[in-house]
Structure prediction request, 83 residues.
Amino acid sequence: MSRDFLEIKTAKITSKGQIAIPKEIRNLEDFREGTKIAIIAYRDHVELRSLRKMKRRFTALASEKILARDWLSKEEDEAWKDL
Prediction:
């Protein structure tokens, strides 16, 4: 297991797909009522992260993708090749 591993708790999924995050886990992650979270799905697991903590990461990733889309072209490569 990962060094970051802290605790395992269980929860039950309702018919509406809802879960209750156990109090001990909410306290560890500082999830309070009204906290917006990111739900990140991987092939083998799902992560819940506070959007406050993720905001900078998403901004950086979005910025890189936008810049790459606009910047990565044959014309740009040619213009900057001698620098």
In short: The chain has a mean pLDDT of 76. The chain has three helices and two strands.
